[in-house]
Design a protein that fits this description.
six-stranded mixed beta sheet, 4 domains, mainly beta, Immunoglobulin-like, 528 residues, rod-shaped
Length: 528
């Protein structure tokens, strides 16, 4: 019996790995040190075999570890044929006797190997007897063609040779084949979807609650997800920020944010909720709420200008312009400090401590207008705002302001009296000129001018400013200012040179006066 063993032989294996029309060298990264490009020996027990590995699933198709993986894709490994070629030969040969060889081709890969061609190179001194399957003869060589070798299958080629000489011999076989390399690719797509649920209607003063759900209906992770909330005018947010960070949403994962806002006006108000994430993911949802309820409007009217100490009448109108009745309505108006309260209509009460006028109006129906009036007196010049405010249940509030400018006025009272009347010719008499500011504002730039008849002579003067005598006239320097209710006294000494009934004329002017104030005083001069 011939003992069969595995012996060391060289097998040259050529491989074409087909992926579509491409060749193996187009698909394999030959710079990757993990790919063995040369045959290697595998030793087991007392036998040894030669293995020529085809590129396997460790590398896959068209993959370079140094290149980034495209977004949303995952490499799941490749499937490639792995063909090994083994020689099974007797331990020794006898010259002139037939010896049987076996060439074992095994596909250890997960895909089929196609178009296999085996070209054995017989050692010198050996004659070819026969083979199973029968070989094709191409020139001086034999050739076996195998259309396909399925995964985990093997084909054995039995070759009978006859050695013709003694000595060592080597044989090898050239094997070429083609195979496919396939891989599974997982392409994922993250997505964002925003849904907003809110009340269709809310009462002014109450809160509207929106439940905003952000979900990922896609197949990949949505990363760095943010939710931005844009509230319209009339919805007042209660949260400190308009942006909510949601982090990462896995496929089919969702998160719900509760957004609370206070309704501050009537009518339709649309809120916009926008979710964004990496890779330009974006979606938005909108929700409209209609504000309903009572709505107060206050209109305060009155004089824009008043002089000091003059009365001023004001009227306030309170209207419910909403869609429901306003309940428990209170109205008040603040009185500026330099104003005195004279009275109020419609049972308005004045609180001297807080200087406010208060009304309880109760219920105001939809579209109803309530009017209240009050009277004040301005006591000092300046610009003074009056604030009127109405309040009702559910936090309803409305206010209005009215500005009244108050001005003072300078009012000059001029009085002239003679101390001695009548007087003798050649004797002196004294005239006192009294200037009083009866107004409520400083009188500025007061000037006094006096004139006596020809038969009288001004001999001396005194006053708050210096007097300049020029014949029968005298002019006093301007008095800069005279406070309200204050007075100034000027004195003239006059001598009569002839008998008669003489009148002295005094004229006072000021910056605030459009025309001077004139006063006459008569004096009788007689002859002894």
């Amino acid at each position: 019996m011939i003992r069969r063993v595995w012996i060391s032989t060289w097998v040259i294996l050529g491989c074409l790995i087909a992926a579509g029309p491409s060749h193996a060298q187009d698909l394999i990264d030959f710079d990757n040190p993990r790919i063995s490009r040369a045959p290697h020996r595998e030793v087991g027990g007392d036998a040894e075999r030669v293995v020529i590995p085809a590129p396997g699933p460790e590398i896959g198709i068209n993959v370079n570890p140094n290149r980034p993986v495209p977004p949303y894709s995952s490499f799941l490994g490749s499937e490639t044929g792995n063909l090994t070629v083994d020689w099974v030969v007797p331990q020794s040969f006898i010259v002139g006797q037939n010896a049987d060889f076996e060439l074992v081709l095994r596909n250890n890969g997960p895909v089929a190997v196609d178009n296999i061609e085996v070209r054995p190179v017989l050692p010198r001194g050996f004659n070819f007897i026969k083979s199973t399957p029968q070989a094709m003869k191409v020139g001086e060589q034999r050739l076996w063609k195998i259309d396909q070798l399925d995964p985990q299958k093997e084909i054995r080629i039995q070759i009978r040779l006859q050695p013709q000489q003694v000595g060592d011999a080597r044989t090898h076989a050239r094997v070429t084949f083609s195979t496919t390399s396939s891989t599974n690719l997982q392409v994922v797509e993250p997505m964002l979807k925003v849904e907003a649920e809110g009340p269709p209607m809310a009462i002014v003063g109450n809160q509207a609650v929106f439940n905003v759900t952000v979900s990922n209906p896609g197949t990949g992770k949505a990363e760095n997800v943010d939710l931005d909330v844009l509230l319209p005018e009339g919805l007042v947010r209660t949260a400190k920020s308009n942006t909510y960070g949601l982090g990462t949403l896995n496929p089919d994962e969702s998160r719900t944010i509760r957004v609370v806002a206070t309704v501050a006006k009537l009518g339709d108000m649309q809120s916009i909720f926008t979710a964004t994430a990496d890779h330009n993911l974006r979606d938005e949802a909108r929700s409209t709420v209609t504000g309903q309820g009572a709505m107060l409007e206050v209109d305060l009217s009155g004089p824009d200008f008043r002089y000091v100490n003059r009365p001023a009448s004001y009227v306030a109108r309170i209207k419910n312009s909403g869609t429901t009745t306003a309940e428990n309505v209170h109205f008040r108006c603040s009185v500026p400090k330099p104003f005195a309260f004279l009275g109020a209509e419609s049972r308005g009460s004045f609180d001297a401590a807080s200087k406010t006028i208060n009304w309880y109006l109760g219920r105001i129906e939809v579209g109803e207008v309530i009017e209240v009036g009050f009277n004040l007196r301005a006591l000092a010049p300046g610009e003074f705002p009056l604030l009127a405010q109405a309040e009702a249940e559910r936090g309803l509030s409305s206010e209005d302001r009215h500005l009244t400018k108050v001005a003072g006025i300078a009012a000059i009272l001029l009085e002239v009296v003679d101390v001695d009347d009548p007087v003798e010719v050649g004797a002196e008499t004294m005239y006192e000129i009294l200037v009083t500011n009866q107004g409520t504002e400083f009188a500025k730039g007061i000037r006094i001018h006096a004139k006596v008849p020809n038969d009288m002579v001004i001999t001396d003067s005194e006053g708050p400013t210096l007097g300049h005598i020029d014949g029968s006239t005298i002019e006093f320097d301007s008095l800069a200012r005279l406070a309200p209710r204050a007075d100034a006294i000027y004195r003239l000494k006059v001598k009569g040179n002839a008998p008669g009934d003489f009148r002295i004329e005094v004229e006072a002017s000021a910056d605030a006066l459009a025309s001077p104030v004139t006063e006459l005083e008569s004096t009788k001069v007689y002859q002894d």
